[in-house]
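agent> fetching stored inputs for the glutamine docking request
agent> found them:
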Amino acid sequence: MNPLYSSLSQVKSDLESGKTDCISLVKHYLSNIEKKKHLNAFLEVYAEEALQLAALVDEKIKNKTAGRLAGMVIALKDVLCHKGHKVSSSSKILKGFTSLYSGTAVERLLNEDAIIIGRTNCDEFAMGSSNENSAYGNVKNGLDEQKVPGGSSGGSAVAVQMDMCLASLGTDTGGSIRQPASFCGVIGIKPTYGRISRYGLVAYASSFDQIGPFTHTISDTALLLEIMSGADDFDSTASSKPVEKYSEKLNFNRKAKIAVFSDCINHPGIDIEIKSRTLNYIEELKSAGHEIEFIDFPYLDYLVPTYYVLTTAEASSNLSRFDGIRFGFKSENAVDLESTYKRNRSEGFGEEVKRRIMLGTFVLSAGFYDAYYTKGQKVRRLIKEKTEEILSRFDFILTPTTPTTAFGLGDKTDDPIAMYLADIFTVQAPIAGIPAITLPLFQHSNGMPYGLQLMAGSYKESELLAFSSDLMK
Ligand code: GLN
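agent> prediction call returned; pasting tokens
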């Protein structure tokens, strides 16, 4: 589907020439949200408020006091705190909870006059690969409504895919931005761990979680990243490394050196057409003068298990705070203190979240801690060091983003392992903490889009975006 605008620069030139204004933009997106309501991408739409904000931004544009994101209408995944607005992580347990403050990334967008149009549906606590784990119903892929949009940031991906906003924010712990972006045909990036503050993000696995945007163009990705990145007094894991002007450096200007993992391309789970198209594309890159080498990555089979051991451990700890006592869901069946905890949590959390809390509690339990958690940490270190060693010799690692295109609704809900394996190519980047992007370069003969993934060394967002920008031309 062709959006009315695919980049902020197009919006800006029409704002300048008077061809449009922010109020008309917001009305356009609101009408698309209404038309596509059945896709269930939004949990809440701030129609009135967005129109009021649009009037304010129009005024600022007239007075030449508008920020860099004037004209950008965005949506937020329902795990990001936005002061005075509800945030539920698509979970019943946070029902009715209102954010007391805005997260740093959100605050920085608002300071540049972005207009937030609503909050989007996702898998509960960002756990899932298909958006079928939301307490508020699944999201449908706008290109084929029998198919999943991917997860966990499925609502944010569909919101951009179906022109319900110009860009959106998601979060990526093991692929939750890149996998839905690939399934929906848009750009998605997971920045380096620590590039964007996590303050005001409801935690899933704190040493993996990163916020990132969904957009149609690299220039918008670059600008949003540039604005959201940087040190933050409220998050000690946010890096104080200076933020480059990504949006002004979108030419790569040289030939790239790229590694491809032979075992990835030859993985038995990969769709045959995705394999052959990716191989063709590699040939095209070679003909364009880029240097590509097929190499071995010895830890491919350990990626998904390491990810699930460590993230469930962190999740079991992070989610222990939700007990329904001070806020959120309260069971009517509780009779005393113990049953209050048990009932609130048993009835407030969904199946997948409970599965992960139990798995995480198990791997952290006294008798098994060393066998699972400590071992998982060691394997993470090996994967990280090997990945960094490869990226000291190459500019990028190239893989398909996903082994298949968007699968059918309900296809994998009964088989958690099959669902977890959908993340095979996306978990490496968060395990290693490096940035990774998916580019919507391909279309399958089944009619669905799919992406090409590039990973780069830590804090190499600038190179990653510049090269991506060349590939998208
Ligand atoms: N699909 C992965 C999972 O279920 C990734 C989720 C994420 O990145 N938040 O854990």
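agent> quick read of the result: The pocket of glutamine is lined by residues 126-129, 151-152, 172-176, 204, 311, 423 (CB under 6 Å).
agent> awaiting further instructions
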